[in-house]
Amino acid sequence: MKVDVLGYLSSIDEAGSAAAAAERGGYDGWWAPETQADTFLSCAVAAERTQRIELITGIAVAFARNPMTVALQANDLQALSGGRFVLGLGSQIKPHITKRYSMPWSHPARRMREFILAIRAIWRTWEQNVPLDFQGEFYTHTLMTPFFNPGPNAHGNPKIVLAAVGPLMTEVAGEVADGLLCHGFCTERYLREVTVPALARGAAKSGRDLSGFEITAPGFVVARDGEQEIAAGVDFVRGQIGFYGSTPAYRPVLEVHGWGGLQDELYALTKRGAWDQLAGVIDDEVLHTFAVIGTPEEAVAQVRERFGDVATRATLALAQDIDPARRAALLDSLRAAAG
Question: What values do phi and psi take at 198, rounded to 5?
Fold first, then answer.
């Protein structure tokens, strides 16, 4: 199991130092989220400041872009990083696509499948110097002149991993992607009962199995020493669970546990603008079902127990001032999980 860290960035200036710190800390991968800084620019800065660590867009909002622009950015980052780039894609939800990005939204799973296939068709044109002829329901790419063709990438094409929650998008990941980024708003039960079977169905559509397929474990982890530090992490995670739980698209995760009514309650709070009350609705049963909480050693043991036989990657943000030898032992313990 590879061990990654998610770099919450408030500005692009932080990307280089954050990725370099992750590399010094012994992590295998560094995710650049698309929140307050551009995920592709973050990875570009990080590529210049690191030598070993994998750099992952975690995630790039696909539907805010088009396959051609993403294919080119990913190709550039693969070259810049020396083959260490992983293209992490996600759909976001309809209000963000239509209201924040002013882009079209329809049939997200079908659109994402086509988005990824279009990227691969573009890369194939550059790699093999064959005509570009991708004609789909949502995207059409039929023009590639030599002036705009960068040619084969010396490091090969990057892997594509897809963030998914619902079964349809998860099937798309199994069919056309190289890996699945499990959303933080996921539980062990949902992963085993819904996600893994959906991945298998998707893989069957393309006539392949899931050998070599990467699955990143859900990421609500509080791994801290001291009661105050753990309490602060728990408060943050309660808010995150409440925030995501208020979104109708994530209701199926709650329904697996018989908590569909919780989504109604959370959603009603958001409609009243009571965002600061979401965390208070998340009781301890829900909290501990979604989150791994404890000292670093306890957290690592829980991640291994919950996901060690399923996931091939996990995210674990340890305190920066933790003893280096202790951190190395913790990361090695996770790497020893079967995956």
Answer: -65, -40
Is 170 buried (19+), middle (13-18) or exposed (0-12) by CB count in 10 A?
A: buried
Looking at the structure, tell me whether residues 237 and 203 fall in a common domain: no
Pairwise CA distance, residues 243 & 245, whole Å? 5
DSSP secondary structure, 237-251, as one string: HHHHHHHHHTSGGGH
* Sign, Cα dihedral of 129, 131, 132, 135: negative
Distance separating alpha carbons of residues 248 and 154, to the nearest angstrom: 43
What DSSP state is assigned to residue 221?
Answer: E
290 & 317 share domain: no
Report the chain's terminal Cα–Cα distance, integer Å. 5
Per residue in 224-271, pLDDT tens? Answer: 999 999 999 999 999 999 999 999 989 999 999 999 999 999 999 999
Question: Do residues 211 and 271 both lie within one domain?
Answer: no
* Residue 332: C-alpha distances to residues 25, 325, 335 (Å): 12, 11, 5
What is the greatest pairwise CA distance in the chain? 61
Q: Provide the token pair at 172.
A: 């798309």
Residue 200 domain boundaries: 2-219+296-335
Overall domain count for the chain: 2
In this prediction the pTM is 0.94
How buried is 206 (Cβ within 10 angstroms: 0-12 exposed, 13-18 middle, 19+ buried)?
A: exposed
Among 220, 119, 109, which residue's Cα sits nearest to residue 168? 109
Per-residue pLDDT of 134-169, as tens digits, reads: 999 999 999 999 999 999 999 999 999 999 999 999
| Same domain assignment for residues 247 and 312 | no
